[in-house]
Request: fold
Amino acid sequence: MNVQPEASHFVDGAWLEDEAGTAIPVIYPATGETIARVHAATPAVIECALASATRAQAAWAATDPVERGRVLRRAADLIRARNRELSELETLDTGKPLQETLVADAASGADALEYFGGLAADLRGETLRFGADWAYTLRRPLGVCVGIGAWNYPTQIACWKAAPALAVGCAMVFKPSETTPLCAPRIAEILVEAGLPAGLFNVVQGAGEVGAALTADPRVAKVSLTGSVPTGRRVYAAAAAGMKQVTMELGGKSPLIVFDDAALEDAVSGAINGNFYSSGQVCSNGTRVFVQAALHDAFLSRLTERLAGLRPGDPLDEATNYGPMTTEAQMRIVLGHLDRARAEGARTVTGGARMDRDGFWIEPTVLADLKDDMACVREEIFGPVMSVLSFDSEEEVVARANDTPFGLSAGVFTRDLARAHRVVAQLKAGTCWINQYNLTPAGLPFGGSGASGIGRENARVALDHFTEVQSVYVGMGRVEAAY
Ligand code: NDP
Reply:
């Protein structure tokens, strides 16, 4: 498969190249080979993207919302029809196995476009009475928005940001992570093929400085970032300087709580999905697995048995169910965390080392005999590392689960549904799962509290985050004045 894109950027409805920009090699994480090359956006490319988005946005906002929705739904159909090709591209960009990308990436992007396509014509305001007078509110698109993506889900992140923005009449300039530049421009191309006018979804490549230049531009009304907490702080501060709105989808260290009455197989499946899917490079992963004391040993031994079913291998082979880290840098960060965990006294139940193959592979790792103040329990690792902790009472586990600055997600496995709801109501987390983990349908709000972020993606609430309220007061009588 030739993955070299026609050009680095997709701007104003067409591929755009400017070789003056810094060259960025695209490295296939499963082998370490360079498979393509793009160039970072130069100031000229950034200007072209922002100018075309600004030009196109007003007419798009004035377009019949039914038509806006139709464009998004056509794009969803095109993405589904090309699912295999887009999934292969996602696999080459990220290293995630095709077994995953065939169901989780382009498919999730299509779901978002279809969902927001259906909602485009349903933007609602309120009607209010004030005596004989009355008022109404309108939701107006914010204008030109910037999307900035992380490297773990390049197709999904582009679609999750584009779909609500375009549905309400905004334009977006999107910057993928420099390490996974291949997928987002293909989505931009498909949107144009589906009938999206030129300029409304532009993709420009580059590292943090390109994101910073976009964030600082006065034409930009909002920035939606998916990334780490430190980057979130920087981008939020830069947006604040321009009084811009933000959505911040940041990192986490989420608790997954397994009570001793839980269905063991389901709890183990939830922990596997919530730690080793995408080789652990998922923001909402339940990486602090609290297991009630009576079930703790059985949980660990069943987990170890189930990990025998793991098949690392060629990510393009559909039988492979475990892939590499997306970047060499991230692999080294994870290995550093493992060294520190061992130095702090953690017991490695399984894994714990780099795999002996080309590319950036780390064994799926389970750590036990941990204390809550160890770095591996407190810090986001963003790799295939599960920390298993034991607890006794419900009250204790709620306090320990909440003892973190993060607040992205949480999971509870128990057969006692009253307890499940009681516990979830006390957890500081934007998204909770009961007897399930990490499912994120387009109709369910997703996002974090605390250090994990601001705002929500998906669901109706995302429409609010790309619009602002305009209030209109209607006087029905005479106007009185003091003099
Ligand atoms: P980073 O925070 O390193 O980068 C995120 C994006 O921001 C990249 O495109 C990056 O560019 C860009 N960026 C960096 N600095 C700036 C800046 N000053 N101004 C504007 N943009 C900037 O995150 P990673 O890509 O390493 O992704 C991993 C992180 O993302 C994890 O912490 C994870 O938890 C989080 N994440 C959160 C999700 C959520 O929905 N809550 C989902 C997925 C991941 P570049 O890297 O190209 O230099």
Q: What stands out?
A: The chain has a mean pLDDT of 98. Residues 148-152, 175, 177-178, 207-208, 211-212, 215, 225-228, 231, 234-235, 249-252, 283, 380, 382, 408, 448, 453 surround NDP (CB under 6 Å). The radius of gyration is 23 Å.
